[in-house]
Each structure stands twice: as C-alpha cells, then as structure tokens.
Amino acid sequence: MLERYFKIGERNSTIFRESMAGVVTFMAMAYILCVQPAIMSGKQFGMDTGMDAAALVTTTCLAAAFGSLLMGLWANYPIGLAPGMGENIFVVLAVIPACAALLGQDAGTAPAWQLALGVVLISGVLFAVLSFLNIRKYLVEAISPSLRGGISAGIGLFIALLGLQHAGVVVSRNDLYVLGPMTETPGPFVFLVGLVVTASLHTLRVRGSLLFGIVVSMFVAACFGKIGLVQPFGLPADPMPVVAKADLVGVFQHLRELGPMVVILTFMALFDTLGTVVAVGTRAGLIKDNEFPNVERVFATDATATVVGAVLGHSTTTAYVESASGVESGGRTGLAAIVTGACFLLAMFFSPFLLMAAEYQPITAAALVTVGALMLQSAAHIDWDDFSESVPAFLLMVGIPLSYSIADGLIVGFVTYPLIKLCSGKGLRISWILYVLAAVLIAYVTWIK
Fold it and tell me: pLDDT of 255-269, one tens digit each?
C-alpha cells in the first residue's frame, strides 16, 4: 500500500530509505524547536511579548508535525514544514510592535500579540486563495530573481546581526554597533564554542549540526552557572494559553494600517516556498523540463499549514530548505515528510530540554548566525551586472539590517525597483503588479507609517 500510494518504487527509493531520510530532515530542522519559542516569547531579544514559552514549545511541535504530515500525505514531497526563520522575527520585531502602537498598549500585552497572530492568519488565508486560484504564478513571475535573492540575503544579515547581539559580541553604543566586551560575561564564549561546533559539523556534512551546536552551548552555559540542567523528558506543556487567540476582527478594524503587513508576510511565504520547492525538487530529481508535479498541492499545503500555525499561536509555517539534507540521504517521496512529522510529535515530550535552551540568549545565537550565513547565499541570484536589478536588490538587502526592520528594508527595495526600471527605459519589462505595490507602499509610508 505504501509503495503504491507514495510511488516509492517509481521514484527509485525504498521504505527504509524514506524513513531514514525523514529522520535526517528532522535532525536538520530540530533547532527551530529551541529557537522558535525563544523568539515568539521575546526571550531571544530580551523582551516579553506576553506569549507563554512552555505553550509555544508544544505548539511549535504541533505546527511542524501538521505541516509535514500534510505535505507527505497530500503533496507527496519529501519536504518538512515548521514556523519559518525570518517570518518569526518579522512578526515579533515588526508586527507585534505595530499592533501594540495601534492599540495604544505595550508590546507585552495579550491584545498586541493576538492581533499580530490575526495578521499571520489572514496572510495564510490570502496565500491559500492565491494557491488554489493559481494566481500565485503571476505573483511569482512579477518578482525578479534579484529581488528574491535580496530579500533572503537581507533577512539573513538581519538574523546574523541579532545572533551577534544576543551573544554580546556586538553591542549598540551611541547609536553605533561596536565590538562588545569579550570577557565580562560568558556569553561570547558560549556563542564561540557553539559556532565552532556548528560550523565544523556542517562542514563535515553532519546532519543536525545546528541542534548539536545548541546542545554543546547549553552544556557550556551550564558550566558557567547560567542555566540549570533539568530532566530532559516530560509531558507536553498545556498549549491553550496561545491556541485560538488570533484577533481577526481587530485586523479588519485596522486593515488600512495592517494591510501592508499582511501583504509582506504573504510574499515572504510565497518566496520561501518557491525557493524550497525548487531547491529540494531539483535535488530529488522531481522537476523535469521546468515542470513541478503537484506544485499547487505544495503551495496549498504551505498555506494551510500557515493558517493552522496561526491558530496554534505561531508565525508563518513554511517549507524548510533543510529538507534537502533528507533528499541527499535518499528521500524522494512524501513518506519521508510523514516520518519527519512523527518525529516532531515525539519531540513534545522533550519540552523541559527545549525550554532550557530558550532561557539564555547566547545558547541559540550560533544557530541564528549560521542560518543567516546560509540565507546569504541567495545573494548569488542577484544580477550584479544590471544596475536596474542590483541596486534595488542591494538596497533591500542592506536596508533590512541597517534600518533594523525587515518591513522598512522591503519598502526601500520594492519602491526603488520600478522607479529605476521606469527611468532607465525598462519600465515595460516588469509587471504592473510591482507598480501597484510601490504605490501602495509609498502611500503607506506617507500617510500611515
């Protein structure tokens, strides 16, 4: 039955190989179980969003399990899903503060993060509509590879900057980023050990290098007395403090102000999924003659997972390019994704261990820097020889970390791109969608922001 349903033999694989590939993909993605609760609760940034970290551990496992299982059962792709890096930071550092400002409350109050989850939920529904109506194709074609590369690289730089700050390697002094004191606290040393371990294992192509780096960092932090070692096993925490809290009514009441946030999250999910499908599908040999079998199911799965993830209290749930590690281990079908999903369900019983990693920022700092370095590879897709492509992409890429805002960086890139194209005589070569988007963003900056 498994052979027939997943077409395992047709794709030159075996049940054992698919199972092992699913475990490898989980190992490569498992770092998100430590990082996501730390980010969404605000502990990663030394702030408090008001979201319960223990509940977020449970719902991170549930969101990742649901997305991965659905990908395997419906789309039959060896791709794991989980709350996405980049989108989670955008929600915490951009959407939640914007929602708090609209409500006239602090960012750590429940109405602020509940309204932000409403934004994520609406973006997921919009993504689902675009996927089911096949409008997605036109939106994807409208954004050039250079802009896509700039978006991913810019977010990567921002994530790396945050990692260095959380480790105490870089500090803000007189509105400037400078090298911090290396010996006053153990944070830089904990980060350095974790980074060396992670980068070395990744170089040696060891699966789960990010997770192993976090474990070693935890041990070093425990030696300095920064965390207390606990029994790693336990029953899952109650997820209800963050489940079904999205404020949809509030989003529609403030749609004029929050509309751009919805659009940006939708585009980010769109590009993440597209890039992952291309990368993983190509490595698995599933894409032939530029044809993506069941690609609409992949996008629909991603969108559905985002909706469910928002209900569970999380930022955008998206496909993970780390799934390529499972493909390299032989994964070719959705059975690998199902095994990955099952591993995420089992991970709920390791919640004490995962919460321990979220308690001290330098523990996960190395993972952030490593992810940032991996995302920066997308800069290779920028057409540096064409200034009408490279300049907007470059402004977008550096604008995100320099403005300390993903939203502001995206605005700079999407506004300058059509203007430079128009003034350089290439205005008719790009889609009208980009002109409309630029006009909306200019209006947003002028009258709303």
Answer: 888 988 888 888 777
Q: Give the integer Cα–Cα distance in Å for 209 and 204.
A: 9
DSSP string for residues in 119-164: HHHHHHHHHHHHHHTTTHHHHHHHS-HHHHHHHHHHHHHHHHHHHH
3-state secondary structure of 171: strand
Distance separating alpha carbons of residues 328 and 338, to the nearest angstrom: 17
What does DSSP assign to residue 291? Answer: B
Assign 319 to helix, strand or coil: strand
- Distance between alpha carbon 247 and the CA centroid of its chain, in Å? 22
As given in the structure block, the two tokens for residue 221 are: 């932090």
Q: Which two tokens stand for residue 234?
A: 């336990």
Q: Are 193 and 362 in contact (CB under 8 A)?
A: no
Q: Tell me the three state secondary structure of residue 430.
A: coil
pLDDT in tens, 270-315: 767 766 676 566 556 666 665 667 777 888 888 899 899 999 999 8
Beta partners for 170?
Answer: 179
pLDDT at 449 over 60: no
